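Hi all, long-time lurker, first post. I run a small reading group and we've been trying to get comfortable going from sequence to structure in the token notation. Rather than ask abstract questions, I figured I'd post a concrete chain and ask someone more experienced to write out its structure so we can walk through it together at our next meeting. Sequence below, copied exactly:
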Amino acid sequence: MEKYKWGDMMKVLILGGALNHEGADSAFAKLTSQTDDDFIFNRDDLTDEELAEVEVILGSAPGVLERIFSLPSSNLKWIQAFSAGVDYYPLEQLAKRKILLSNVSGIHAEPIAETVFGLILGQLRGIKTAVEHQQHSSWEPDSSHYTGFER
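-- Answer (accepted) --
Happy to help. Here is the structure in token form:
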């Protein structure tokens, strides 16, 4: 596998809808103004010649890898998945062709941990009961008993 030198231009194919959101266009305009890399967005009329030149893929789309693998030659070197799981990729073929596959494992760890701790604290403080009382205009003291904690 040939190595890149600083300043080499890469052809990057962007797949999937994960980057289809408000602000994506301006973010990509800024990115493309700061690099000489060539960004191609997935479209139905991508030619075999264009696919053969792609070196990096961001995301996944059914059929694109199959098309690339069916070509006589390909420059594909790296795929960045937008998911933690990558079992839907043809892992054996990627390994055989020495194509690097990256995932986003752990990207949601912090917000998930914050949510879990928030729910635990909410349960311990009786937030659900307080909201139910508020909805019924009932301002009775909390009668919840928390096992393992003294009041």
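A couple of things your group might point at:
Residues 70 and 135 are 62 Å apart (CA to CA).
The chain has a mean pLDDT of 83.
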